[in-house]
Amino acid sequence: MVRLAENKHYSENKATQSLPLPAKVYLPLIQHLGKICSPEVKVGDTVSLGQKIASITAHVYAPIHASISGKVVAVQDWPHPVLGRAKAVVIEGDGQDNTAAFHLKNQPEIDKLTAQDLRKIVLDAGIVGMGGASFPTHIKLNPPQPVDTLIINGAECEPYLTADARLMVEKTAEISLGIALVARCLGVQKIYIGIEENKPEAIKAFSGVAGIKVKVLPSDYPQGGEKQLIQKILGKEIPRGKLPFDIGVSVQNVATVYAIYEAVYKGKPLIERIVTVAGSCLQSPKNLLVRIGTPIKNLIEFCGPLKEPPAKIIIGGPMMGIAQYTDEVPIIKSSGGLLLMNKKEAKITEEDPCIRCAACVRGCPVGLMPCQINLASERLLWNLTKEYGASDCIECGICNYVCPSNRRLLQTIKRAKLEVVK
Amino acid sequence: MTNNLIVSGSPHIHKPASISRIMWTVVISLIPAGIAGVIIFGLDALWVTLVAVVAAVLTELIFGIWTKKKITVLDGSAVITGILLAFNLPSGVPLWLPIVGAVFSIAIGKQVFGGLGQNIFNPALVGRVFLMASWPKYMTTFTQPLRAAGYDAITSATPLDILKEGKVLEHISYLNLFLGKHGGCIGEVCILALLIGAALLLIKGYISWHIPVTYIFTTAVFTYIFGAAQIFHGDWLFHILSGGLILGAFFMATDYVATPLTAKGQLIFGLGCGLLTAVIRIWGGYPEGVSYAILMMNAATPFIDRYTKCRIYGSK
User: Fold this and answer.
1) Does B43 contact chain A (CB < 8 Å)?
2) 3-state secondary structure of B310
3) Angle A37-A40-A42 (CA atoms, 0-180°, nearest 5)?
4) What does the pLDDT profile of chain B (316 residues) look like in tens digits?
């Protein structure tokens, strides 16, 4: 664990603003962990707001919905923030934003819903883990063995990002209703929400909510990692190679829970999310409510004029986010941040030899020895990387961050992880 | 704009840390002991140190040019090797001796293994042991401190020599040992100055307490138990304050490259150093054992690393 310069003050007190509707949205057919969807619309079709446009018959997937109404103008390969390129449905907006189609439910109706009904709603709404992992939520709500504890992840430990923090402050009541739905679906009694101490407003907001225990977490990175969160809140570890449900725990991100609330209460699929736009190139960083599929250039334009042109654009946070090669790339369900870095910050530094200072060993939150895995990986000794536990790496990036020799430890460990699986 | 974007793997931020920042901080941390050496032994100490540093840096430069590798002279690591070698020499040695030692340290101790980060042994100690084996007379002729003897260079024995010869040491107080008013190598005598430098490195987090504390503690316990004719009567404080223990424990046994990675491994390393130092001092042929103890434990480091891996999250 390390303490990072948080840089959250740029945007943490800025209320969420809605980004004007984009002229076109680019909806990649895969925005989740699992199978890629097939388009259910074709070029020329008219689509309404929230209409399902892509799905697949599979177990692990989440359908995609039209985030604006209009006409399908293309189904083509398009830049993707995680995969580089992927097939996407392009919709040209008609400027209408008719939310009347969403079917509102009242409390008695909701009280009647069974766990199975809830999971069906979550699946039909295309909800995935919005903290970054984008694992389909309906599967997480159906653990293969019963769980007794629900942890809501409000840590948001990445520097710069304040999207979850704003959501927790602005939508406390809605998130609380969403938490109750998740708890009901899982049949759990013990509910915690973990929030880092650098978000006093969010901590205050949830302190009054009945049935939810607020756990104030140290502002260490990566406190929001599932393993670290469980360890801090419950004082126990997930055994190696196991998942939270193996120890009776389910972890859900606050933004995901809010999406569940919207799907159940408002009948609204996952078509928008909050994105923090920040970084040294911006004069005024913002938290924006953005339709899924909006190209990032729209967000950049809205936050302009810029102090200087960005040298590096990152979707996500500075520790785990992904550098983009074009500003045509769209925001997808898991994109919580957009960072514009200047030339100086983006400068690629030369790698020096490892001096075995062990800063990475001390920093690794899962107890690996990154420098050793790095050396083994560079020599293609995959069995040795396995022996050193490469597959336990959570890819938090601390090893690279602290290395005085600027070694690309994480990249070589990621490679080892892939090779070990083979 | 689209075409000029830099794409690289995560993470996208980096701690303000670099090899040269660490190395130059270590150089700064050695300055108090250097100043103390010059005050105690006179300007000879300064010349020996400067000559060793220049020789070390030039050797590093020549190797860099010869092997067409990145020139690493400015990272400060060769400067440290030069200083540490000089600190392990008596001030009265002829000036060719530090040159030979420094060239050997860098060339054989470091560059033949592949340069920075690759050496198995602490380079300065490799140089020192080489000089010790080749020119033992120069290496064991110590100058009397100035204040005690005036400006005439009178040779004197170190407190450990006197102890080894079985003589009584009544005339050296603990305070004088602490301040360095006795014969010895340039950089090892003034404990006060060494501790000031060590404090800087500890505060900066560039070294951890594990190796120095276990090293010194083990030496103290062992010399207390076996250091005198009668068991449990050894003068442990004398053993801590004399010889190169403090210099070795804080500045040489903590050399990143040749020491274990994990805290557990470092505790074992410190324990081994302490044990070997005490054994050599009490029963060995030399009055002092710090250099050999550290070198032997350097050799054991890969072995220690292999059996002291960290505990991985979620394992039993």
Assistant:
1) no
2) coil
3) 120
4) 456 899 999 999 999 999 999 999 999 999 999 999 999 999 999 999 999 999 999 999 999 999 888 888 889 999 999 999 999 999 999 999 999 999 999 999 999 999 999 999 999 999 999 999 999 999 988 877 765 444 444 566 788 887 777 665 566 788 888 998 888 999 999 999 999 999 999 999 999 999 999 999 999 999 999 988 899 988 999 999 988 999 999 999 999 999 999 999 999 999 999 999 999 999 988 888 999 999 999 999 999 999 999 999 999 8
Q: Are A368 and B17 a contacting pair at CB < 8 A?
A: no
CB contact under 8 A, B262 and A406: no
Angle between helices B96-107 and B77-87 (to 10 degrees): 130
Distance, in Å, from the CA atom of A142 to the CA atom of A118, rounded to the nearest integer, reads 10
Greatest CA separation found in chain B? 81
**Count of alpha carbons within 13 Å of B95, Cβ hemisphere only?**
12
Rg (CA), chain A: 21
Q: Do A355 and B117 touch (CB under 8 A)?
A: yes
Whole-angstrom distance, CA of residue A98 vs CA of residue A31 = 24
CB–CB of A210/A216 below 8 Å?
Answer: no
Contact yes or no for A342/B104 (Cβ under 8 A): no
The upper half-sphere exposure of residue B310, i.e. CA atoms within 13 Å in the direction of its Cβ, equals: 25
Q: What is the DSSP string of A364-414?
A: -TT---HHHHHHHHHTT-HHHHHHTTGGG-----HHHHH-TT---HHHHHH
In whole angstroms, give the CA distance from residue B69 to residue B63. Answer: 8
Pair B201, B207: CB distance under 8 Å: yes
Q: Is A95 left (phi over 0), alpha (psi -120 to 50) or beta?
A: left
Domains and CATH numbers, chain A: 21-95 (2.40.50.100), 114-266 (3.40.50.11540), 272-346 (3.10.20.600), 359-421 (no CATH)
Token digits of residue B192: 């006060």
d(CA A179, CA A174): 9
Helices A172-186/A163-170 angle, 10° precision: 100
Taking a C-beta distance cutoff of 8 angstroms, is the pair A334, A299 a contact? Answer: no
ipTM of the complex: 0.93
The order of strands in the sheet holding A70-80 is A24-28, A84-93, A70-80, A46-47
d(CA A137, CA A418): 25
Contact B52, B99 (CB under 8 A): yes
3-state secondary structure of A123: helix
Q: Determine the residue among A340, A400, A407 to mutate to test chain B binding: the one whose Cβ has the most chain B Cβ atoms within 10 Å.
A: A400
H or E element that contains A195: strand A190-196
Cis-peptide into A365, omega within 30 deg: no
Nearest to A308 by CA among A286, A278, A341, A275: A341
- In this complex, is the C-beta atom of A310 within 8 Å of any C-beta atom belonging to chain B? yes
Helix axes B96-107, B123-134, angle to 10 degrees: 130
What Cα–Cα distance (Å) separates residue B45 from each residue in B26, B89, B128, B156? 19, 9, 16, 16
Q: What residues in A contact B9, CB-CB < 8 Å?
A: 323, 408, 410-411, 414
Alpha carbon A224 to chain centroid distance? 11
Chain B contact for A339, CB < 8 A?
Answer: yes
Q: Please give the Cα distance from B304 to B211 (Å, whole number).
A: 13
Other CB atoms within 10 A of residue B233 CB: 12
Distance CA A36, CA A40 (A): 13
Three-state DSSP state, A27: strand
